[in-house]
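Lesson 9: reading folded outputs for more than one chain in a single document. The general rule is that every protein is listed as its sequence immediately followed by its structure tokens, and records are never interleaved. Here is the first one.
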Amino acid sequence: MASYIREFIARNVRNPQGYFGSWFAKNAFIKSNTPLIENTIPLVGIQPDHVVLEVGFGPGVGLEIALKHVQQGLGKLYGIDISEPMIQAATSRLGSNITNQKVELIQGDVVNLPFEDNMFDRVYHTNCFYFWSDHEKAAKELYRVMKKDSMMVTTMEKERVEDAQRRGFMKYGNPDVDNYVSCVEKAGFSNVKVENKCMEKSDAPFIVIYATAKKE
């Protein structure tokens, strides 16, 4: 029974599927990831006219918070997630903001982004990169769709993720920060910097990785 539960959790934290999988993932993500998301958005530096992409948006909490920064400007938020149940959950959460075209949600994979070159001013993702099927391809795709001098912000609760890995819940993820950083640099990103931070309310530790899309 214990191995079945670990397998169920491992599969559904990577790609929530089915009623029980999506219910578990949505509630688990909201409870565990919201504090990190709340601490991430201020680091992204979103301006009212920015076009912004969130990768792996889950139930849409991050997009809902980021929306406040573009609501009064010409900016727009895009989200891409591999899971259909997460698309549905985020659609329900964001409602009228999708109708008025301030937010657009897309089901897809970060290794094959359905966006034009040089499209985004900011890209961010939280507790996400370790589930990507190919870090090198994903990094190249993100670099491609970002504007010159735009910034990507990656955040991760490293200690919590490593604990989940030890307990068998990260069977389908690769939380190797050094590997991720190496792939980002190979893709062409500059000024790649890793910082250790603590959350404002709980003082829980997390890491943030900054990367700039320097282009000719």
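And here is the second record, again sequence then tokens.
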Amino acid sequence: MSHNAGSRAVVLGGSIAGLFAARVLADAYDEVRIVDRDVLVGTKGVRRFCPQSQQANGLQAKGVHVMEELFPGITQELVDNGAPIGDLAGTCRWYTQGYRLKQETAGLPALGVLRPVLEWHIRERVQAIPNVVFVEQHDILGLETTADRSRVTGARVQAHGSKTEEIIEADLVVDATGRGSRTPVWLEQLGYAKPEEERKKIDLVYVTQHYKLRPGCDPFGKDTAINQIAHPGLQRGNVFFKVDGGLLELTTYGLLGDHPTTDQTELYQWIKSLGAKDVYEVLRYADPVDAPVAFRFPTTLRRHYQKLDRFPLGLLVTGDAVTCFNPVYAQGMTVAALCAITMREHLHSGATPLPLDYFRDLAKDAIDQAWEMTNTIDLTFPGVKGDRTRQVRMAQKFLKRTQIAATRDGKVAAAYFRVAALMETPESLMRPGLMLRILFKSMFGPSKESLRPHVWQAPPGVEPVFADVTEMPRAA
């Protein structure tokens, strides 16, 4: 694609969504500027203005495929730099409703990579694009528009430590500032309607800590992760997986006021309370390397820009600035990647994209499936308020039967995870042969094998970190 002569796009926000957006914009504009409050270039660790980067962040298989399309070879680059890679259905040990699902390789790459490391690799690729410029340590103040306010012509920013406001002129401004996006406020100030917002209060808190296994211990075996999904009978869960640097990353969470703590002893007690004891047994042979860190996520949020009938030209919104999913389901970064693909489709002519056309396609191609999946599961919890339509209730019943069948049949489990990984639509589970398989296998309830505890024995001579939760190990 040839660049527009002298054209410029400005991306507000330099996190994952902003980086993906900048990648596709660089093919359509002579210059792309990424504006952020943080120091970005060269930063490998947790960023000050990205608090969630201390927590576990997952990229679904669809996200891995899109990332690879945008940055060829990056997946192998991550693996070469120490990120374990497994299969979402084949090497991840999953528990739901208290029983273990069958494992079967499904061709769904599952990368074990720390969020700051993943972001650094993507940012390095973006930084290598000649026409991309990072504008760091700048606050974003607002938008610049034409006199009639029909078109956005740039962004107003201010460098840290400066009292002078700057205007970055642009042919296109993309808001990738996340959940705290000011676009709804800016629209109202410009005389436009704010988008309708859909929220569900889930009152989620999750706590993350990193560990290193004691020499000679490998309770994971061939597996790369041990994950337990919260359910109405136990509103607690976890994701626990091998990550780069030879570490284990554990995020445990609780919904609707049932929250984990950052007190070390109490955190171990919390882990022990989970349905399957695998994680607790692993922790008995894993030394903490840092202190537990908490993160609160009160509500899911979707801004329905596609329902507006007026929107200024020269402005688009992407990633969490449009939709914030329940982070437990690891959809956010993947949807951010899909947003970039949708954006690319609206840049193909070289003309400024039409925002409302973009938002309609964004809803259909990037957001709707993930949002409906999130809603279906969140609304299984009686304490989550929302409209439980007949369609939702039927989807919930079918989901439960699919999960039960998946304890008996690896092909069902693989098909289920292809949907969870956003590689296929939920309708794929309705194919006649697969649907009959689900209905038949679920008639008998969870398999006996799925209810048996996973047993692992420590090698002779290896002492546990603690014999019981009353013995609190100290963080390194």
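What the second record shows: Residues 390-450 form one domain.
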